[in-house]
Amino acid sequence: MATLELVAERGYDGLTVEGVAERSGVNKTTIYRWWPSKSALLGDALVEADLLALDTPDTGSLRGDLMALVNSVVRLLTAPPMADVAVAALGAAARNPELAAGTQRFFRDRFAQETTIFEQALGRGELKPEVDPMAIVDLLAGAVWLRVVFRGLPVGEDFTEGIVDVVMGGAGRGG
Amino acid sequence: MATLELVAERGYDGLTVEGVAERSGVNKTTIYRWWPSKSALLGDALVEADLLALDTPDTGSLRGDLMALVNSVVRLLTAPPMADVAVAALGAAARNPELAAGTQRFFRDRFAQETTIFEQALGRGELKPEVDPMAIVDLLAGAVWLRVVFRGLPVGEDFTEGIVDVVMGGAGRGG
Fold it and tell me: Which parts of the sequence belong to the HTH tetR-type domain (chains A, B) (predicted)?
């Protein structure tokens, strides 16, 4: 938690193992025993953070589950205090190979939780079997990232329902 | 160009106005007269860079134009030397408000070019009029960003055709 707090306050460049030791009251040598670098420390902090957990929604329909997933990504990228951490850490990962390994683990871990959504939708006959579930997550989560972080535009219900409608229209069936 | 080269080589944190002056042979004072900070300098460099230009495709069909758009985003994020610049600058924008203004301008500028695709598709009756064109761009470009930068996974034709199929299925009509 100290690691994530410090990233939120100072950005990735302001994060130091010394700072984490001070904030957490854990000896610096102890930290280095488990994490060789600040990027390894941040990678693990991201994967383990309960506050960054995505709920695995179970609303009874694919559309409902995808809306819940999109809303949890919107919260992750816009709601303080975690949005500052998430955006800073993900942005830093774009140019730091060692931190990228942590980010990749974070996305793998979250996707493993999300697969339930798609297994249930297949079981209910709501999802075209030829559509790759990871591509659905990438489309929706990517659209939110682009809009919030790169365009700096607000994300309202028009936007979230619009992107889910497009994806449901292309990936869903029946309904 | 010196600005973008330096970002590619050193990352955003390694970019300095001094470095740009040295590389470009332009006096530091002259640079500061036009750009108050390195983030302003980088913002303008991004918007003006021909190498970061997206082709505005005109293949005669919405599907063809969206495939071309996706392929140009893939090139932007994976093909050296510009991919290093693009990923470093966009990642840095995630936590720097002044640089974010430049990134936002870059995305506005590119979107102004992309609207032609959607006007033509509407004219041909290929696009549902209720779908927001910007949401289509956000879905496709966001999916490529997420896959390349955050997941670190390869982007093959399976992926690019898969995301365009989903978006065409939800946003297109007729066909």
Answer: 1-53
Q: What is the mean pLDDT of residues B13-20?
A: 89
The residue of chain B with its CA nearest to that of A99 is: B150
ipTM: 0.91
Best B146, B160, B164 residue to mutate vs chain A (most A CBs within 10 Å) = B146
For domain A50-171, give the CATH superfamily: Tetracycline Repressor, domain 2 (1.10.357.10)
Within chain B, where are the H helices?
Answer: 2-10, 17-24, 28-34, 38-48, 62-78, 82-93, 97-123, 133-145, 157-171
Residues of B in contact with A43 (CB under 8 A): none
Residue B58's SS3 state is coil
To the nearest 10 degrees (0 to 180), the angle between helices B157-171 and B62-78 is 140
Asked if residue A30 has pLDDT above 70, the reply is yes
Domain covering B53-171 assigned CATH 1.10.357.10 in the classification: yes
Integer Cα distance of A74 and B43 in angstroms: 26
Asked if A3 contacts A41 with a C-beta cutoff of 8 angstroms, the reply is yes
Task: Tell me which residue has tokens 């809303």.
Answer: A71
Structure tokens at A174: 């029946």
| Structure tokens belonging to residue B29 | 């004072």
Q: Is A152 exposed, middle or buried (0-12, 13-18, 19+ CB in 10 A)?
A: middle
Strand partners, A127: A172
| Closest chain B residue by Cα to residue A11 | B95
Local confidence band at B51 (pLDDT 50, 70, 90 cut-offs): low
Average pLDDT rounded to a whole number, residues B162-172? 97
Q: Does the pLDDT of residue B47 top 90, yes or no?
A: no
Q: Up-side HSE of residue B126: CA atoms within 13 Å toward CB?
A: 18
